[in-house]
Design a protein that fits this description.
Oligomer: single chain
Number of domains: 1
CATH architecture: Up-down Bundle
CATH superfamily: Ferritin, core subunit, four-helix bundle
Number of strands: 0
Largest sheet: none
Structural class: mainly alpha
Order of helices and strands: HHHHH
Radius of gyration: 17 Å
Shape: elongated
Number of helices: 5
Helix content: 55-70%
């Protein structure tokens, strides 16, 4: 059974996941305003994915009969100097979330919270994929800095990021919308 200390830390992570979703919406809106629809669509999808990560954590807490406290989030950064900055911000965010998930896993292990540790295994795998995918996108956008339509072309040609619903993912509260 999950430990209250782990539950408190997981509630904090829920806030980080919702914050990441908000940041990705702000990035998508920036790209939409720049008439870069594929970059915008990519980040709108990323926002939904982050929201669903938060809801997976909510469902875990509900299933473990632990308190759920949805924290507020800071306003996201919404203005950027060029087309590269939002992706660089996204990569930094994914790296930070990877560290946070690692910290949660360490805490669960230290507490002997095996169900909490097991729950986080999917997120560890997911973060490896997220960092890799965002790193690749950053490389492409840096190369296309002077002609962002090349990044649009890349996204039209390649599958970047989430390849669809993962049958091994935890269930999200309210279903994955």
């Amino acid at each position: 059974m999950s430990h209250e200390r782990f539950a408190k830390a997981l509630n904090e992570q829920i806030g980080y996941e919702f914050g990441a979703a908000q940041q990705y919406i702000a990035v998508a809106v920036y790209y939409d305003a720049e008439t870069l629809p594929r970059l915008a669509a990519h980040f709108y999808r990323q926002a939904l994915e982050e929201r669903n990560h938060a809801m997976m954590m909510v469902q875990y807490l509900l299933d473990a009969d632990l308190d759920v406290a949805i924290p507020g989030v800071e306003a996201p950064k919404s203005s950027f100097s060029d087309v590269v900055e939002p992706v660089a911000l996204a990569l930094a965010q994914e790296k930070r979330v990877s560290e946070q998930i690692g910290g949660l896993t360490t805490l669960a292990r230290e507490l002997g919270d095996y169900s909490g540790e097991q729950f986080l295994q999917w997120f560890i795998k997911e973060q490896v994929e997220e960092v890799s995918s965002m790193s690749s996108l950053l490389t492409v956008v840096e190369r296309a800095r002077e002609n962002p339509l090349l990044a649009e072309e890349y996204l039209a040609r390649e599958t970047v990021g989430d390849g669809g619903q993962d049958p091994t993912s935890p269930h999200a509260a309210g279903g994955a919308l």
